[in-house]
Amino acid sequence: MSSDQDGTGAAGAPYPDHVDHILDQWSRQRPGLDVSPMGIIGRMSRLSRFLEQSIAEVLGRYGLNEPQFAVLAALRRAGPPHCLSPTDLYNSLLVSSGAMTNRLRRLEEAGLVKRVPDPRDGRSLLVALTRKGHRLIDQAVEAHTANEHRLLAPLGPEDRKVLTDLLRRLLLQFEDHRQPTPSRNPTHDGQATQRSR
Length: 197
What we know:
Blueprint lengths: L17 H12 L6 H25 L5 H12 L5 E2 L1 H8 L3 H13 L3 E6 L2 E9 L1 H21 L5 H15 L26
Antiparallel strand pairs: 1-3, 2-3
Helix pairs in contact: 2-6, 3-6, 4-5
């Protein structure tokens, strides 16, 4: 990898980025203030904007936005029969029940999910992938993963591992440590359902 590609100059020193310029300005204007956290959080914030823009562009090719993709992905990775309750979904995706209701309505109108009775509670409905939704999320997640590999290309395997460990340590301060909910089975006899139509 060339020095231009890995973000360093000819002598191996990193090129200054936008956040470096901000930190330099603060160091001159407020020399007694420790603004070093801005170097980390500011870069995370700026990176998130670039990443979200790229992710949105890829998902848009499949007629999805990121929140819709997140719902379909949660159902797909839950395993057969790819069925969860709305509560499972909004707890997993950290959104309000109102926001989840809107997402589900749009996905249902597009024929990507359907509501099925919950055998454990006759007043409730579960959310299941349709065949159309199953096909679409499989296609979209392949393109999404390829895009993520491209976005992380400047980092080698060891850099990725170090960054993953550091981000996990930071994220664990805020997460509730809940495990993802396995797929619900919308049948009374406990037998696997046929793939949704």
